Amino acid sequence: MMSRTLLAAMIATALPVAASAGMPEDVKAINDNWARISYQMNGSSHQTAALDQLAHQADVIVARYPGQAEPLLWQGIVVSEQANRANIFHKLGLATRARDILARAYAINPRAGNGGAAMSLGVLYYKVPGSPIGFGDSGRARQLLQQALALDPDGLDANYFWGDFLYDQGDKAGARTALLKALRAPHDADRTVWDAGRRGEVRALLKKIA
């Protein structure tokens, strides 16, 4: 089940100027608000309400930049987080919607978000139960997470989720190696809330493995 927070990947920095005027700033606003809700806001009811507002904001950004992968990527991440926090009756429906949004981003640009589209899809595929309950597929998850890791081999997120997947599959040694590599990733001065929160999750999983 989707018990751990689905976090996001790095935003692509090289975007077509004509199509993306103002887009990096708008997408980063979704990114920053998501990190604040996930790591700094207390109270699940407050987080849920804030995520609902952020989902509406993400919808607006997607409509503002049609056909662009990065807004769809972050819309999918927000919906994934809603699924993570939803009750059992709404969890799978939101996860399915997140998958469909992220698949659209991936279809537009498989490299979107420096591998974030592939990574976020991969996380859903191993967090969601498989058939007949859900659409989970560990083989598909492995393929997508390896794609993300190839695009961002030294990245904090890519190595964390690869380690988390390996732990989920019972490979504790491989998970530990990936998680230690995640901690060696350069700190991101532009995303300090995410950076600190992610490293905290890496250390918590390492402690669990130990």
Keyword list:
210 residues; mainly alpha; Serine Threonine Protein Phosphatase 5, Tetratricopeptide repeat
Distance between the termini: 22 Å
Contiguous runs where pLDDT drops below 50 for at least 5 residues = 1-19
Count of helical stretches: 10
User: And the CATH topology?
Assistant: Serine Threonine Protein Phosphatase 5, Tetratricopeptide repeat
Give the rounded overall mean pLDDT: 90
User: How many DSSP E strands?
Assistant: 0
Describe this structure in words.
The chain is mainly α and 210 residues long. The chain has a single domain (17-209), classed as Alpha Horseshoe (Serine Threonine Protein Phosphatase 5, Tetratricopeptide repeat). It is built from 10 helices and no strands. The chain has helices at 17-20, 23-39, 44-64, 69-85, 88-108, 112-127, 138-151, 156-168, 172-183, 192-209. α2 packs parallel to α4 (69-85), α3 runs antiparallel to α4 and α5 (88-108) runs antiparallel to α6. The chain is globular and about 45 Å long.
